[in-house]
Each structure stands twice: as C-alpha cells, then as structure tokens.
Give the backbone structure.
Amino acid sequence: MGVRQATRVGTTFVSMRNRNYRLYFVGQLASQAGNWMQTVAQSFLVLELTDSSTQLGLTVAARYLPIFLIGPWGGLAADRFDKRAILTATQSAASILALIFALLVVTHSTPLWAIYLLATALGLLNVVDVPARQSFISELVPPGELGNAVTLNSITINAARLFGAALGGLVASVLGLAVCFGLNSVSYLVVLVTLLWMDRSQITVSRRAPRERGQIRSGFRYVRETQELLVPLIMVAAVGALAWEFQVTLPLVAKETFGGGAGLYGTMMAVMSAGAVVGGLVTASRPTGRARSLAVAAVGWGIALTAAALAPNLAVEFVALLFVGYGSITFNALGRTALQLGARADMRGRVMALWMTAWAGTTPIGGPVVGWIGEVAGARFSLLAGGVPTIAVGLLCYPALTRIDARRHGSIDSDRHPRLNLSLRRRSEEE
C-alpha cells in the first residue's frame, strides 16, 4: 500500500481512534440493524393485514408524526440534559416496545390500531432520542474529527440497513415476523452495554443550555439568521418528504412491479445499502468540502431514483439501487456534517432536532402521499415522485450554496483549508 493510499485509509477512519466513539459505533450498528429488521417486518405485517399501500404509508406516518409535531422540544431536551442518560432511557423503552410488538404478532392478536399505537409510541421516543444521539457524537471526538465521525455514523446506519434488511427479509420468510421484532428488542441491549462501558472522563460535555423562556423560538431564529444552516435544512425538508420514503416505495416495487415478497424487499434494501456504504466511505475519506456539494449530491441522487423508477427488469433495478444508496448517504452525510459543524455547541441539539424534523418529520406528509401515488398510478411512480423533485431542489439551491462558498472564501481559502475555516468560525461563535 502506498503512502498516499495509507493516508487516505487513515483519514477515512480517523475518528475511530477514540474509544468512546468506537463503542458508540458498535452500539449503533447493532441497534440500527435490529431496527431495520423490525422495519421490514412491520411493512409486510401491514400489507398482510390490509393489502393497502395507503395504509402502509399511514403506518409509517404514525411513527414520524410526533417528530413533525414536537421535534424541536426533543432538541431542547438534548441541549439541556445529559445526552448519555437520555439515550439510556430511550433505548430501554424502545426495547420494551419491540418486545410488545413481538408478543402481539406471536399470539396472532395484532389489530391495525395496535400497530398505529406502537408506531406512534416509538416516534415519541425518537423525538428525544435522535437529536441526543446525533449531538452526542460531538462529545465523543475532537472538533477536527467531527465531520469524519458524522459520516462514519451515516455509514453505520446504512451498513446496518444492509445487514438488517437482508436478515430481516430472510428471518421473516423462514422464522416469521415475530422473530424480527424480538431480535430488535435484544439489539437495544447492546447499546445499553456500550453506553455503560464508556469512559465518562473522556466525554467532553457540551455547554448546557440554561432554562429560559423562548428557547424554541430562539432556535428557529438562530437557524433563520444563519444561511449556512437554513439552506441545507430547506433542502433536507423538501427532499426528505418525498425521496426518503423507502419504507413505502420499496415494498410496493418489490411486490407489485417484480412480484416478490419480504425476501426480495430485504434484498433490494441490502443492495441499496451496499451502495450507501461505498458512498459513505468515499465521503468520509474526503475533507469537508464546499457547500454546493450538497446540491450536486441532490441532483445525482434524484437521477438515480428516476433510473430506479424506470428500470425495465430486476437486474437493472439492482444496479440503479446501488446508485440510489450511494446518492442517499452522500446527501445525508453532507447535510448533517454542514449542520453539525455550522451550529454553536449550545444550539446543536436544537439544530439537529430541526434536521430530524426536516428529514423524518416530513414523513407524515410524504409517506401517505407517496403511498397514494403508488396505489393510484403504480409502484414505479412512487419512486418517480421522489426522484424528479430531488433533482429540482438541487438545481434551485445551487446558486444559494455557491454564494455561501463565496462568503467562506473571503476569510480563509476554503479550497485549501475548509475544515479549519469552519472550525475557527464555530470556535469564535462559542467564545
């Protein structure tokens, strides 16, 4: 291996030299794999009970409705309280919910209303869990390694989807849906163990936000007045509402377009996740780039989604899904890294809560819409409904992101020192 290649590999995994982050990484890998097993099982449970893509979209929406309604309050909690304690509580509760799911399925007493109720309960936990989990990363690594850690965390999620979705489809086909829910319940225990093993003396606790009136409004105002945060959040909201609805679109494509079931759905998710892992590794190996890279990623992802919608056979579909995965992780990682690096420490929880609301909280709108489109026009159009708008968002926001790059270039050469530029600006704001 040459020196340059060795340096590139070292840069890709630089944040993994921190023991606490390695533990966090392992815990998230296990938990997210279990979560995707449950996602596969829940999707096909709803289709078995109702044979309705609209109901599938509504079930997914129920999980994300709490994020849409009260997401910013979860971010405020992450800014006020100990993030490790929050995660211990939320992961324990999520394990109990997955166990309840398993018991209902194994006893054949699973009314649709119970699925809605449990999905909503999981959404309520995610209101607090997601911003705490995202902002906790900044307490586990030095500021200069934060962008790399965020990208590797995105790889964790997609690697988990790779194994979790494929294993979920296999387990659902061979052992039944209840086993998927049971294994997810067990996976949360891995997170609890890794949190317990962390060296608390090596956790750099962020400055806590004091208890004051109007803190939610101040978070919105802070983002509105900071273009480096506002433009990416607008893009994430627009794209997340229609493009990031794979829990609805891929089961429809697997079942209606290609005549498959849970096994094919799991394979499609695994193929897409393989592309996402490659995209994440490529993104992690590169220094924090220009803001307009987010627009380029949106256009590329939209083209891949459109190709997947128009694929004439399963072989072409798999190839297109590789690029869908690559584009999704690149867009996601660039957006989250921009927000993490651009936000002040005492605002990071609220900013990441807004990211969560924009990315996942729009599902109560996008999920039913995409499901309805799939039911009325066909499964392929459910993917097309995400691809075309994603291309449009990238093209429309490219000029604004280019202006942000120009402003950054005015103080420090962003081509040569992009991380230093963002790190110095963030440090100055915190002081």
About this structure: The first helix runs from residue 3 to 12. Confidence is low (pLDDT under 50) at residues 1-9, 411-431. The CA atoms of residues 95 and 189 lie 7 Å apart.
